[in-house]
């Protein structure tokens, strides 16, 4: 299984030069988008069922896959249209800040069931993503300081970072809090404020080459906003961030910043120079934190001293990690470890193993670079009436697991996800 994975990856790597040229000529922006997802929830569910039917010939599987990717693309378009209308009124640049065609192209290309060995291990989508409704929930038990427009900027950054990682052929997948998020919410944890990715440490140089580097030795000097932006350096409401209009691509503004935390763990923060500075730091928010991991042939682990932000990171067998497959992160699809629970357990301190049942809020305010004055820890169950939580169902006959997200206030299914669940899973979280 692992061998196939590596092969698949290297073939993908060889092909991607051609990708680059053919894509540059087909950059078309058919904005403003019209949303036309005519399929019902049941129809999407049926497509997913077929996708995992081992009796279905590969050629039919591929056409089902294409349909799902098409639906996904419609959802992304709706997300972008909604967000631009809500957060960047009258700003047509907003639509061009994300190259959806290129993003979808790379995700599809990397996970397309090209042959029998690439039959999907997991797949699903947010059937309907309503930015304002879904991301406006603020609950007095676990409050957030992320508005729906902040959320949009997090996702906008993520889409662009994913695109660049694929373009640069860097292997990446979700880790830490974001992994908890896709497991429990099919999204960033509603009260969390950042996105964490793992890359092999051997890809560090590629990361540094793929984004413009910000000189981190001159920490005391604030980064000058790039010439034509009107980004403020205080902590403004994100809805007031203006995007400059003269750039061909939002990508050009992304920078990488090398960071060493108190555990001496090195990570790389990727953010846009259009975003506001974080209090007393030289980086900006929103940001994506990229953590390099070490590996031998069979395991991955953290270094130095196995320190990881969430605690000591144990060895994690690659067979529990691979094949890396797509998971739902709000309107996005992001490569994730095969066995989410084992991945999390490998990097969570002892005593926090009940993280599947306990929800913790206000652990760190990334946008203010501020430790918590108070941390909240409540049984997740208490939040089920407020926030959407994933429900997991296992079919013993087919060994398939089906996950579904319901938004309590709407009493409506929002996302659906299906995967091969060979491992012994608990039914709920
Ligand atoms: C399936 O496709 C991948 C990627 O093109 C390739 O590396 C692998 O060898 C193929 N496997 C089989 C069984 O054909
Ligand atoms: C996905 O990739 C495959 C293989 O390159 C391609 O044939 C197919 O058209 C793509 N599907 C979509 C929806 O872009
Ligand atoms: C957007 O355009 C409308 C109609 O032209 C106008 O009334 C509104 O003030 C504009 N909003 C902003 C933020 O410029
Ligand atoms: C959520 O509530 C907290 C505490 O009441 C407040 O500080 C924060 O600004 C609110 N966030 C949003 C996005 O409304
Ligand atoms: C970073 O800044 C320091 C001090 O200003 C300087 O010595 C160093 O050469 C700079 N490094 C890069 C890569 O620009
Ligand atoms: C800033 O904008 C001006 C005029 O719009 C343009 O000529 C210049 O190249 C831009 N500078 C940068 C750094 O993008
Ligand atoms: C842009 O940068 C150039 C060179 O650093 C500077 O001369 C110019 O005044 C800047 N333009 C604006 C609009 O800030
Ligand atoms: C990789 O490291 C793990 C943990 O130390 C060890 O059990 C395993 O044998 C190592 N594998 C190889 C191929 O060195
Ligand atoms: C910024 O940092 C200063 C000093 O650490 C602190 O007093 C202030 O409260 C911080 N501001 C915010 C918004 O967190
Ligand atoms: C499990 O899947 C089979 C085949 O799709 C289906 O007939 C059966 O009803 C499912 N069982 C449950 C409990 O959903
Ligand atoms: C939600 O939907 C279910 C089934 O459709 C129904 O039984 C239940 O009463 C609904 N709950 C609310 C609060 O509308």
Automatic annotation (TrEMBL):
Cross-referenced InterPro entries: LicD/FKTN/FKRP_NTP_transf, LPS_cholinephosphotransferase
One Pfam family hit: LicD
UniProt region (Disordered), positions on chain: 219-240
Signal sequence, renumbered to the chain: 1-18
Domain LicD/FKTN/FKRP nucleotidyltransferase: 167-252
Coiled coil listed as a keyword: no
BP-aspect Gene Ontology terms: glycoprotein metabolic process
Positions with biased composition (Low complexity): 220-240
Keyword terms, alphabetized: Signal
Protein name according to UniProt: LicD/FKTN/FKRP nucleotidyltransferase domain-containing protein
Organism of this sequence: Rotaria socialis
């Amino acid at each position: 299984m692992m061998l196939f994975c590596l092969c698949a990856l290297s073939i993908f790597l060889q092909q991607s030069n051609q990708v680059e040229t053919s894509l540059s000529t087909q950059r078309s922006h058919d904005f403003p988008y019209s949303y036309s997802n005519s399929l019902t929830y049941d129809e999407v569910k049926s497509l997913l069922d077929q996708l995992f039917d081992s009796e279905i010939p590969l050629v039919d599987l591929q056409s089902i896959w294409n349909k799902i990717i098409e639906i996904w693309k419609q959802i992304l378009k709706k997300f972008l249209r909604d967000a631009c209308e809500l957060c960047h009124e009258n700003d047509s640049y907003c639509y061009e800040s994300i190259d959806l065609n290129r993003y979808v192209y790379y995700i599809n290309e990397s996970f397309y069931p090209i042959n029998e060995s690439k039959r999907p291990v997991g797949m699903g989508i947010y059937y309907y993503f309503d930015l304002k409704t879904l991301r406006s929930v603020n609950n007095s038990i676990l409050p957030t300081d992320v508005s729906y427009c902040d959320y949009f900027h997090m996702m906008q950054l993520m889409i662009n970072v994913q695109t660049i990682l694929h373009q640069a052929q860097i292997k990446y997948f979700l880790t830490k809090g974001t992994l908890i998020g896709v497991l429990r919410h099919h999204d960033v944890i509603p009260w969390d404020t950042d996105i964490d990715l793992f890359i092999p440490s051997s890809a560090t140089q590629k990361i540094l080459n793929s984004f413009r580097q910000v000189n981190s030795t001159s920490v005391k000097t604030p980064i000058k906003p790039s010439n034509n932006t009107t980004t403020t350096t205080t902590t403004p409401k994100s809805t007031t961030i203006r995007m400059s209009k003269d750039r061909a691509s939002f990508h050009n503004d992304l920078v990488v910043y090398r960071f060493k935390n108190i555990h001496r763990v090195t990570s790389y923060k990727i953010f846009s120079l259009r975003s506001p500075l974080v209090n007393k730091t030289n980086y900006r928010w929103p940001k994506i934190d990229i953590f390099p991991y070490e590996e031998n042939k069979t395991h991955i682990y953290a270094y130095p001293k196995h320190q990881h932000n969430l605690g000591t990171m144990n060895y994690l067998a690659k067979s529990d990690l691979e094949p890396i497959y797509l998971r739902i992160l709000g309107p996005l699809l992001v490569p994730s470890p095969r066995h989410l629970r084992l991945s999390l357990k490998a990097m969570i301190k002892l005593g926090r193993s009940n993280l599947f049942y306990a929800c913790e809020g206000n652990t760190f305010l990334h946008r203010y670079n501020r430790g918590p004055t108070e941390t909240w820890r409540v049984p997740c169950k208490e939040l089920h009436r407020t926030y959407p939580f994933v429900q997991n169902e296992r079919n013993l006959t087919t060994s398939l697991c089906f996950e579904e997200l319901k938004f309590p206030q709407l009493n409506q299914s929002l996302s659906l996800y299906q995967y091969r669940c060979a491992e012994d899973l608990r039914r709920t979280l």
